[in-house]
Design goal:
With 576 residues, this protein is of the alpha/beta class. Helix content is 44%, strand content 18%. Helix 14 packs across helix 19.
Amino acid sequence: MRAWQQQAMEKYFDPAREGRAARDFLAVATPGAGKTTFALSVAAELLGRRIVDRIIVVAPTDHLKTQWAEASARAGIPIDPSFSAGKGRTSQDYVGVAVTYAGVAVNPLAMRIRTERFKTLVILDEVHHAGDALSWGEGVREAFEPAARRLCLTGTPFRSDVNPIPFVTYEPGPDGIPRSAADYTYGYSHALSDHVVRPVLFLAYSGEMSWRTRAGDEVAARLGEPLTKDLTNQALRTALDPAGSWIPSVLAAADKRLSEVRRHVPDAGGLVIATDQDSARAYAKTLRQISGEAATVVLSDDPGSSKKISAFSEGDSRWMVAVRMVSEGVDVPRLAVGVWATTTSTPLFFAQAVGRFVRARTRGEVASVFLPSVPTLLGFASEMEVERDHVLGRRVTSEDDIFAAENDLLAQAQAGEGASDDLLGSFEAIGSEARFDHVLYDGAQFGHEGEVHVGSEEEMDFLGIPGLLEPGQMRDLLRQRQADRARSQGRAQKPSPTDPGDPAIQEVATHEQLAVLRRELNGLVGAWHHRTGQPHGVVHAALRKECGGPAAAIANAEQLRQRIDRVREWAARKSS
């Protein structure tokens, strides 16, 4: 067992935990840390001590039921993954059963009767799913209230809503707001330092997008620039359109990265997370043209999906494309390269999806995830090591705050609506173009000045990074490549202040270079905002104070470069 699993076991069987405290246990461990092994070790110990006689595993999907059955069989605990509430009895060869949260909600009374018949251990895998629907939470609570022991597992204990999670204890924080309280927590940062999970290299791609509204108006925007929520969503949909140029360019870059990783990890595989089935099939077709090898397509309504995932996990083929089937709990340890090609952008889904790539097998492996330059996603990427808890609600702190509850409800009601939905109308992508933006690693940003074209040497500085590097080596290599390119560009392009040079160069500098530098500066300021919480205006003011010069809108190229370098220095200092 890993050190954290042993510590959690000791905490679970601590004699001081008596009565109700011993009955429930919430273990929060980052995806890939080994929650299944810990839970089965607890189950084996409880069975050996005769504290429980039967086991019920509750998982989010049918595939995970099968995965639990295979893992428990290896641990000598046979469970039936084909059991359903309507089935009633199962073979005496089994010690337990595996069901889904949806299956429990269908007939919670039948599961309650089964739970009451024996001293039962209930393992609630990814327990936050019990709050996905009112019927799910109520069904889980009704079915497993009489259980002798309940072991709750999750890698993402937070939710996007305020639905309470059954059998989870909530305690008020310093601000008085109830938060989930775990009995044992093993976060990503701890797992990374223990070499239990891989570090993640995020490669962000921007580009120019254009689309047409229902009224026939054409809209153009750059992915990654500050936009309204609706325009950002439309720009992202345009980028992910299989008929455009953005997604084929990013898939080609990801395939290059996978080839580089496979030099050191021969069986490394890649996963594209798509929005819908049509897009998934189109991406698979594009990948075949790029790599010369057919990609495995996994769809939720395909009865053979579980077998496809298992075959891909055990094989050495390059690519798999999935909609949501491989987003959580699915164990494919050889996944090393990912492409975020979905419009879903909640923190919960992001954590679950990225968790598919962090499972370490040998020391030094690095995961690479390709992202659209969307502020929300970049913010999630820069906060990979932040531990979160499930927050239930907001406390009214003063008379001025008496409408806090109503305001929260209003914000939730409006979250799915957009002020410009009617203006934008139906969506039709016209064209897209990809540009390499930057790399996010360990919360710091690395990149090259100016626009970096797909397929250029500047892009290969990052795509060609070896697939086996220690975290410190990765950080040093990224800084070195950025510095080397900056020095070479400075020698080749930086004009003398007294010699304006060729008029054509001056024209490029005033019309294009300044715009590129402002975009780069705004992107870095946005990343710093997501990392520190400082408002954009405060960050810009701090940069002006340290570097001098006017506002960014009227600053010259040299002043903008100084501010860009200063933000990068801040990020490097914070990381180190």
